[in-house]
Design a protein that fits this description.
The complex is a heterodimer of chains A (267) and B (590). Chain A has 267 residues and is of the alpha+beta class. Chain A has four helices and ten strands. Chain B is built from 16 helices and four strands. In chain B, a hairpin with a 2-residue loop joins strand 1 (262-263) and strand 2 (266-267). The chains are: A alpha+beta (267), B mainly alpha (590).
Chain lengths: 267, 590
């Protein structure tokens, strides 16, 4: 039975590693300027964690194969070096791994969170509410009008609670249900939650950030490829959570200008 | 001396009558079994819920006969609605984390064996002990009631993030009385755990037999002791957090609800609260909770392994110190659940380092086990196989922690199935393997009968291979970006992942079905199993020095005296290759 355990565990370990080694399941193509750092970090971690996983499982399989139900009178012996060897090995192996991963990982994180958007970044406001995203562009004046939550009226398509009758800045604001951005231009995303917690997740952008009610957060990123991508909500927000999504269109500057002009005329 | 004798005096007389013996018993052994039985009920409900979820994910329109009887609005015509899917998910998580992973390895086995392993006749406070079980039982009933109220069970997940969990029924079905029951249940559960933890600590410190120094206690006793210290602090935070949430829901306060929320287009009458405050309080409890589940498992597995290897582990002391450092570090890492929550990004780095550091004691423990296997004479039993399976699961679930401990990678993997795979392996399956190992190992002591080994092996193999088939693919799904907590996979990239989801569902149904072999074995062996001797595994610790099952006062009124630690295996003793803790004989190499 000990031998069987060894064989089955070896098969499990190798079969588990197979889809990873052959890249059967991988993240989609990266379309952001910062994503490469995250992907490299993920790949490095996969190498270290994957190797630890396979080695530890094989070691376990070997020991159970070799040292199970041995013959009567078989000599029981101890690992030379004992616990001291194990503790030193753990500190060196894992200690360096921890330091390496921790320090390297900081760089990738810093690229997203420790830098400020450039002043010429395009500002877009995203509002998350049960179970839809809406987006707002500031219009020619470059300013967002203030929000009045008491004026929110979905029936009248006033998703943000704008009051253009009294607020000058709101008059040229452009509200859309899908998000379009120009390629290779930095986007400064202002995140506002209308009701409960939500999240903004675009796999290809390597971006995930919660919307927190009462706390307006912001993110900045630059898309490097044009295309049509999904924005998913990843924070449990109620019965329609699975269905809460929007599309992100990354357009050439020309197409984006056309799109925003058209949207402005529809307001 | 007089003091010591007083503490040894039994705190209660033998129980009389059915109620006194089996229901409102003061006997720690009965209470331990009650906790175990409660966990068993909870785990089977939780498992059925997971079946329903897996079934719904791959066959969303299939009718589940009879389901409409329990869930009239949640599953009309037997077809699960998206909101009922979230109810299933919430109840599954809550039942499993609180009523299974906390109850069985800690409160269940701990209650039964901690007093015996230290040579005490009962817990320090038997009445407290009874109260903590019945408090937990009430918490269970209150939670399960949520299935039967018109509003239905809550849909906010086992983490109950505010404001979704705080604003009431405007935010969706199940968030009215369903959520109230959830909060009340968890608050009551906390009280039970606080009483239990206090009792464990007092018992370990005050009621040890003569000669039982702290370092002579078995690793399992140490694990329960350390866990009770963690539990005392963790549940002391969750309890007030639940009370604040309840106040937000029922008394109109705004601890977790900020100003001007428009829910279902109705402006909420709240101002000034912080949703992140709930997350901080919840995870300050929530991360140590992981260790409340896993440290007793580490203790049980070490205890079983020491016995199965027929030689001491490389160092019991190092395992004990490693468990302590894990317990200590567990208070500095809660923020790793909140990397993308909107918390200050600098604090993410601060939380990331201690999280990665926990890998060191965890690796030491694993390497001690592996190093101890080397040169051993492993006795193959169902108990030892589950303990070895635990090591495998602990490694598999541990290495995925590397990824999630790093904020930069968490940006991509957060809230995907990768996380689900990670915590199910390391916290769920691993702890369950330890529960199984402990059950097969201690069943003879608890009932006086042996469990059937053939059925046990069958159960082990299906469970071992099955759980890998279920939870390893979760990681692959996460790498692609498959989001968790979705009732249906409507996004453009997800249909391509359906074959893998179907594979998982089939594996889950099969593995789940194999658990009925265990249930049958448990019940059958209880009445028909082979008679067990007092020491069927040739063990050294105190539970093996008394009859199986033990008499009501454990040591028959005698006061055991302890001469050795619990790790005297692979020595030349009068009884064979081991020397019992209570045996006064000299061991040369000690």
């Amino acid at each position: 039975m000990g031998k069987l355990f060894g064989v089955i565990l070896t098969i499990i370990a190798l079969a588990s590693a197979y889809p990873i080694v052959t890249h059967m399941y991988v993240q989609p193509v990266d379309i952001s300027t910062h994503g490469h750092a995250i992907d490299e970090q993920l790949a490095d971690t996969m190498a270290e964690a994957g190797l630890s996983f396979v080695l530890a499982q094989l070691l376990l399989a070997f020991c159970v194969w070799k040292f199970s139900n041995r013959k009567e009178g078989a000599k029981v012996f101890h690992l030379r070096g004992g616990a001291r060897l194990v503790v030193v090995a753990a500190f060196i192996l894992v200690g360096t791994e921890v330091l390496a991963l921790g320090v390297l990982g900081q760089k990738a994180w810093a690229e997203v969170y420790f830098t400020s958007p450039k002043p010429d970044a395009l500002q877009v406001q995203a509002q998350a509410g049960q179970f839809a995203f809406y987006f707002r562009y500031p219009g020619p004046d470059g300013k967002f009008g203030p929000l009045h939550p008491d004026k929110i009226d979905e029936g009248n398509q006033n998703y943000f609670g704008l009051d253009p009758a009294n607020d000058v800045e709101s008059r040229d604001d452009i509200v859309t249900a899908e998000m379009a951005i120009p390629v290779n231009r930095e986007i400064h995303l202002l995140m506002h939650a209308k009701d409960v917690g939500h999240s903004f997740y675009v796999r290809e952008l390597r971006i995930q950030q919660d919307f927190v009610p009462g706390l307006d957060l912001s993110l900045h990123f630059t898309a490097t490829q044009t295309g049509h991508f999904e924005i998913l909500c990843t924070q449990l927000c109620g019965l329609g959570h699975y269905n809460m999504k929007a599309y992100l269109n990354v357009l050439s500057q020309e197409d984006f200008d056309k799109w925003i002009k058209q949207k402005a005329s529809e307001q | 001396m007089e003091e010591a004798l007083k503490s040894q005096a039994h705190a209660h007389a033998p129980a009389e009558g059915f109620l006194g013996k089996y229901v409102f018993s003061l006997d720690h052994k009965v209470i331990g079994k009650q906790y175990y039985a409660l966990a068993l009920a909870a785990v089977f409900i939780g498992m059925v819920l997971s079946w329903l979820m897996r079934f719904h994910l791959v066959w969303p329109n299939a009718k589940i006969p009879g389901l409409e009887l329990i869930a009239k609005t949640g599953a009309p015509g037997g077809i699960i609605t998206p909101e009922y899917y979230l109810s299933l998910l919430t109840m599954h998580g809550t039942l499993m984390v609180f009523f299974v992973l906390t109850n069985a390895p800690f409160a269940g086995f701990g209650n039964y064996f901690l007093p015996i392993q230290i040579g005490a006749e009962d817990m320090a406070f038997p009445r407290f002990n009874m109260m903590s079980f019945w408090t937990t039982f009430v918490a269970f009933i209150v939670l399960v009631m949520a299935f039967f109220i018109p509003d239905g069970p809550p849909i906010s997940g086992w983490t109950a993030y505010a404001p979704l969990s705080a604003v009431g029924k405007d935010a969706g079905p199940g968030l009215g009385w369903g959520q109230n029951l959830w909060v009340i249940s968890i608050a009551i559960f906390c009280i039970g755990q606080l009483l239990g933890s206090l009792n464990f600590i007092a018992t370990t410190l005050d009621l040890r037999a003569k000669g039982m120094t702290l370092m002579r206690m078995p690793i399992s006793t140490w694990a329960w002791f350390i866990t009770s210290a963690i539990g005392l602090l963790a549940f002391a935070v969750l309890l007030p957090a639940c009370l604040l949430l309840l106040l937000d829901r029922m008394a109109g306060t705004s601890f977790f609800i900020p100003s001007v929320l428009a829910i279902s287009d109705r402006l909420q009458n709240h101002a000034g609260g912080s949703p992140l405050l709930w997350q901080h309080l919840f995870w300050f409890f929530g991360h140590p909770e992981v260790y409340i589940a896993i440290l007793p498992a580490v203790g049980i597995v070490s205890h079983v392994l020491t016995n199965s290897l027929r030689k001491p582990l490389l160092s019991a002391k190092v395992i004990i110190y490693s468990m302590m450092s894990i317990g200590f570090l567990s208070w500095m890492v809660w923020g790793h659940h909140m990397f993308v929550s909107g918390m200050n990004p600098f604090s993410s780095l601060l939380f990331s380092f201690p999280t990665l550091t926990i890998t060191i004691p965890a690796t030491i423990i694993t390497l001690i086990w592996l190093g101890s296997l080397y040169g051993a004479n492993i006795q193959i039993t169902t108990a030892s196989f589950f303990a070895l399976g635990f090591i495998s699961m602990f490694v598999s679930g541990g290495v995925s922690g590397f990824f999630l401990a790093q904020p930069s990678i968490d940006i991509y993997l957060h809230a995907t199935y990768f996380v689900v795979g990670h915590f199910h392996m390391v916290m769920g399956v691993a702890a369950i393997f330890a529960i199984f190992s402990g059950t097969y190992f201690w069943f003879p002591k608890m009932t006086g009968r042996m469990m059937n080994e053939t059925l046990g092996m069958l159960h082990f193999w299906i469970t071992f291979v099955g759980t890998y088939c279920i939870f390893m693919p979760f990681h692959y799904l996460g790498l692609v970006g498959n989001v968790r907590r979705y009732a249906s996979f409507v996004d453009d990239f997800m249909p391509a992942l359906m074959p893998l989801h179907k594979f998982i569902t089939i594996a889950a149904l099969t593995t789940g079905a194999a658990q009925f072999i265990f249930l049958f074995n448990l019940i059958h062996s209880r009445f028909r199993g082979k008679q067990a001797s007092s020491n069927p595994w040739r063990g050294t610790s105190l539970e093996w020095s008394i009859p199986s099952p033990p008499p009501w006062n454990n040591f028959g009124g005698e006061h055991p005296v302890v001469y050795h630690d619990a790790h005297q295996y692979g020595v030349k003793g009068s009884t064979g290759d081991f020397v019992m803790q209570t045996s006064p004989e000299q061991i040369l190499n000690e």
